[in-house]
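@channel anyone free to eyeball this complex?
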Amino acid sequence: MGITRRQLFGWMAAAGAGALAPGVAKAAAGKHFSGYPESFGVLHDITHCIGCRKCEAACNEVNDLPDPDTPFDDLKVLQDKRPLSATAYTVVNRYQFESASEPVYVKTQCNHCLEPACASACFVKALRKDETGAVVYDASLCVGCRYCMIACPFQVPAYEYDKAFTPRVMKCTLCYSRIREGKLPGCVAACPKEALTFGRRDDLIKEAQRRINRNPGQYVDHIYGRFEMGGTSWLYLSPRSFSSLGMREDLGVKAAPEYTSGALAVVPMAVTAGVVLLTGIYAIARRREQIAEDERQAAVAQTRARAEEEMKQKLTEQKKAADKEREAIVNREVEKALKEAEQERAADKPAADDDSGKET
Amino acid sequence: MEQAFFTLQEFMTHTKSVVYLLMAAALIGLPLFWLFLTGRDEKKRTF
Amino acid sequence: MQQISASLKNAAKTSVWTPFNIVAGIIIAVGLVLTVIRFTGGLGAVTNLDHHTPWGLWIGFDLLCGVALAAGGYMTSAACYIFGLKRFHAAVRPAILTAFLGYALVVLALHYDVGRPWRLPYPIFYSQGTSSLLFEVALCVFLYLTVLFVEFTPAALEWLGLKRARNLVVRLVLVLTIFGVILSTLHQSSLGALYLIAPSKLHPLWYSSYLALFFFVSSMFAGLSMVIFESTLSHRFLHHKMDEHHLEQSHGVAISFARAASFIMMGYLFMQMIGLAADNDWHHLTTGWGAWYLLEMIGFVALPAFFFALGSRERNLRLIRWTALWAVLGIVFNRLNVSLVAFNWQLPADQRYFPSWMEVGITLFIVTLGVVAYRFIATRMPILYEHPDYREQQEE
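replying in thread with the prediction:
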């Protein structure tokens, strides 16, 4: 048996799909984005930080945040690890190691990713990457779904859970309005030890690399934030492994949108293919039903035809029989009439003789 | 029309907007086209 | 409050003080109080949500489970109208009603969960964040709720006696069904895909790049099991509302659905294994998390699949019905695992989230609303029976 047309079409479709798939993958992977050129960032040299909390105080003031429970010059709060919160855009934590007498202080705040997970996750574009490098939040759009908090790998965005009518997502703004005015971010301006350096991100990477090269043994050979999650505008230099300072080193270098791009890419195709496929399945089911129906009707028609034929035959037979009967009746009647006539004739003979003479 | 995109995020927001519009077009257009395609068929009950 | 619960109680025409009505009344009364607290005191006043866990029970149960269990709507209507399996016809309306109520309640629950619920239309009409998977979820829920509403209206219109409007809507059923199947496919899967953006927070045994597929496939057997389970309840409590057509078909529906669910569950198990293999996550199986994962896979997927198979082979309806409940619990288990248990798995125990009693209360309140609404509608509208005026048209 040769190839049926249907089989051929099937193969063609499969071959087409096979040829297309890698093309699609390439088209998606071919794009590369390297972020806003000349965007700003901050280099946090952890070795310089003394845990004075001046940056926290400055941040609080610049951003008009509520007064803290304990004043910023009270360093006792450093005993506990504090997360970021809706009232603190930045927090300094202390890490004490048994092997060293001096503790290590680390400042945390929004890292301002080059490809922010929060912005990628926001379904109303309330979060966006600004050309200054800041990841900016617009409370006038925010619905309060908190998906940005789910998405952020650094656990940065905080939420005003206690507000009933105007809850906002709270996070560091990189003081982007100050940057636009030509000023330094609040924390950077306040740092007394130059643990924070503000500048173009590209320059900061060079500076960080220079510090690592210049001071062998002082830093681990890694600039945190250079590649993490596709890179962040904040960069860190550390005297010990970042994971020992509460900074995750298992995040990978893939930018957040890359994790979702695959699933997003399937959506429109699934819809379009879905309409075609389902309509097709429906049509096939209908067609099959139709064929079954037609066959049923054909069978019915055939049976009916046969029955009619038989009926006709029967009818003709009956007609014949009826005809015969009628004939028989007629014959009988005729015979009867003849007999009667004969009897009559026998009664008056002379007339009959005349008739017989005529006949012969 | 080549637009400059600096971030993947921006690029995706833009392309997905276009794609979603096309998707809507497919959702509306394909059923209408199906009606055109089968318009001459004898009327059959379609549920 | 008393009045509302009283009027709800009146909904059931039988004696007002039935145990069902009393319990439902109490839950609804408490729920209304909690609602007031939620909307005057903010999320913090009723929930245990915090900086690390922004999504709690209301997302994990109300949204994820609610949507998964409403999948019966698209499964049944697809089987009946698209695949042409007419013998499932009697199951379509109850399934559509469940799905419609399910989605309506999901949307209601979202009003409690988001910070500024009055802005919920924003993503669709005002500022479209198209790069977000949540945008897709929002779009699909919005559209599908509309589709389900229209699919449900024939029952209401028959009840109200609006023939012409009813016939107009019925003509749209096919298009609506196709839309419905596509929309629910998409957003069942995109609910799973929501978690794709947080690989660093979700345990590797549950995180997979196939998460979207897993959510979709599991929603299929969730929907089927839910149809069986719900018809069990209806048989128990609303038997008098069913017509011969429904009763005649319902056994066949249960057996066929059990068979389908069983097979899909087996397929799902293999998919999960392929997911593990793709990320080489096997070594996690020997940890405590692994045991939890195996409990989910064996205890709540493999075993129900096996008992569904037994039940459908032996035409044992009792077994099928109990297994349906089991499978439904399995889906709840899975969704809670993804959204709450395995999420933030690296956090120290004292920082982990556990729902407050008030969160549980709101969830119970919403579920109760659903049950009451189902009862209200099913005792009045032609859901479990065909309306005498329209029977012919459907049979034809």
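from a first look: Residues 1-29, 356-360 of chain A have pLDDT under 50 and may be disordered.
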